[in-house]
Amino acid sequence: MEELICREGTVHSVIFQNAENGYTVLRLLTEEGEVVTVVGCIPCVAPGEHLTITGTWEVHPQHGEQLKAQELERTLPEEEEDIFAYLSSGVCKGVGPTTARRIVDRFGLETLDILEAEPERLQEIRGITAKKAMEIGELFRQHMGLRRLMEFLSRYQLPPVLAIRLRQQYGDGAIRVVEKNPYLLSDDVCGVDFSVTDTMALSMGFAEDCTERLEAALTFELTYNENNGHVFLPKDKLLAATCQLLGCGIEQVEAALDALAEHHAVVVQRIANVEAVYLRRLWEAETSACTRLLALLEMDADEGRFADRTVAEIEKEQGITYAPLQRQAVELAAKVGVILLTGGPGTGKTTTVRGIVALFQKMGLNIVLAAPTGRAAKRMSELTGMEAQTVHRLLGMTWNEAAHQVTFQKTEKEPLEAEAVIVDEMSMVDVSLFSALLRALRPGTRLVLVGDADQLPSVGAGNVFSDLIRSKKIETVFLREVFRQAEQSAIIRNAHRVNLGESPDLKGNQGDFFFLCRRDAQRAVATVLELCKTRLPDNMHIPAEQIQVLTPTRKGPCGTINLNRLLQEALNPRTPGKREILWGERVFRVGDRIMQTRNDYDVVWQKDDGTVGTGMFNGDVGRIAEIDAGGEWLALDFDGRKAPYSVEMLSEIDLAYAQTVHKAQGSEYRCVVLAALPSAPSLMVRGVLYTALTRARELLVIVGDDAAIRSMAANDRQQKRYSGLKWRLCHAGDASE
Ligand SMILES: Nc1ncnc2c1ncn2[C@@H]1O[C@H](COP(=O)(O)OP(=O)(O)OP(=O)(O)O)[C@@H](O)[C@H]1O
């Protein structure tokens, strides 16, 4: 245990302050006349304040010894000179040293009280008009409001950045709003974990069965389950889960649910024989997607006769003869407004898309290609020879800080210019994105949705592609035949076997598919490391950067956490002169492969060609290009998009030498090494194995337990997702919406 140090004194100067997270470096003049550098989260601090700091000494490589604050008490300045220092430091815009001096000379120790409560008295000072007095008073009140809000939050270990958000949302009275209902901290804007707000509220004296608590818990359950992919929850399940969370009776929770429905925070609606409870925004996304899709389906697009002739022309131009189903897909694209194209690897989806693009070009349509991730869009561009972009970018998605939510520039008010939109990797599109896409289409736009419905479903809520197919309301072409060229690939052959519930051929061990039987976890780990470090680079000439290790799980010896630590040591070991940062249990080192683990809309990136943009998204992969000498900043490079990250932002980064199969969805790698040993039953399923296999382009090596792999292939259990899209499409017209 490090020794705890205590220092008391007055803030002499503030050297650095981050308004977002409150991180501050300041000089403290102690009562003994010593000047100490203090670092820590001390939001809104200004010279003249009195601080009592408890913390530990640390040595910064550049700045030397500093006291790292762990606990602190602070009081506003109480001596005249300190009040002057505080006021003249810029805490209140419009008050510089000269004015500050006059104010303090006039009001002395009462200065701060007068500024806040009786600012009109500032008129007693020569040169301060009534208007100016009120202006100063207002600015000072705002400063004090924010300061009190931050202090209030820090009492519960909540970050000061929340104060800024709360003020944007609730104005100057934010602290009163939060004191009245601390559970507001768990809404979409602030996103504080329910358990944190709950502890806070209960300690503030809120009753266990108060309305605020019950309503917040219901909303929390719905949001939590949205993260598990559910668009709604059946009412009985929601009530049971909430009762369990709170330890409350069902009648009380049900009454709170009725109240939420009354003020439209949630929508309760019967879907088939289920009483479905939706968060309002998800209900809007689902119903709007359904209505708009049905409208597109009604379009009279019949250019069938045109298609017959044209398909023959396209075949000639592309030197290809379409298989009957491919031909059917291209013809349908001419005849109807919306088509779904689905099939496993090597069944000719991309070739068919090329045909559809050529057809639309001949029809003179303005075509747009898009995919849900950057990597999928890049691949689509390469394969079709046409520019493709992410759906987010196509829709002009931006982050609205005030509302703390994403907004789309392209909507019905400013729709896309496109006359035909083709989206690939549809299995990754969730209901919110799908609804946003449909909103941006003009009536009559043709829509082609392409994907492999057997891949794992989207990370976000819904089961959109599968629901669309299963509704049978939309023309769908299932490509099932694997083309001869593709048949050469054992990866593709095995992927299809897995899809049929059969075990992949683990004995063949030739071509592009290998299996190394390691039933013992430690041996499996050793083999994965050896493959990445020496065997594949030396024998197959595949550099380590082009190998991706995948595993179903995060935990255990073959989970991402352990594998990443070991792969980092093997592939990017500590070397003198190579900078690294210790962050919690993890080390981040220059050269490491990393992944963004949650959406951060504020990151500013720049490409070498000068293009500047914002936002890094969950799943984006990059590497650490540099770490600054002070260990405060990192330069990250996400496939050419370079972005500075402060050290606090490491909480949104993870090592990516090994990734879970779920995270790798939608990406392809030259070589995949799959670690497959028994783990949590929900992960030992066919969808995970199938998705892992189909991520490899040239080589797949499975290291693991043959019995586990066979049982994965046999287990087609899919986690049920509550979604009403299919039902709505089938019952449009008779639903009482
Ligand atoms: N009509 C056809 N005649 C001959 N070969 C074809 C035909 N259609 C596709 N192929 C070939 O089959 C292989 C797989 O086709 P394609 O890349 O279009 O499939 P895919 O479904 O997009 O596969 P993946 O999902 O793996 O990318 C390719 O080598 C392609 O050239």
Automatic annotation (TrEMBL):
The entry's keywords: ATP-binding, DNA-binding, Helicase, Hydrolase, Isomerase, Nucleotide-binding
GO terms of molecular function: 5'-3' DNA helicase activity; ATP binding; DNA binding; hydrolase activity; single-stranded DNA helicase activity
InterPro entries hit by this protein: AAA+_ATPase, Coronavir_polyprotein_1ab, P-loop_NTPase, RecD2, RecD2-like_HHH, RecD2_N_OB, RecD2_SH13, RuvA_2-like
Enzyme class: isomerase
A biological process from GO: DNA recombination
Coiled coil: none
Catalysis performed (reactions): ATP + H2O = ADP + phosphate + H(+)
GO CC list: exodeoxyribonuclease V complex
Protein name: ATP-dependent RecD2 DNA helicase
Species, as recorded: Dysosmobacter segnis
Gene: recD2
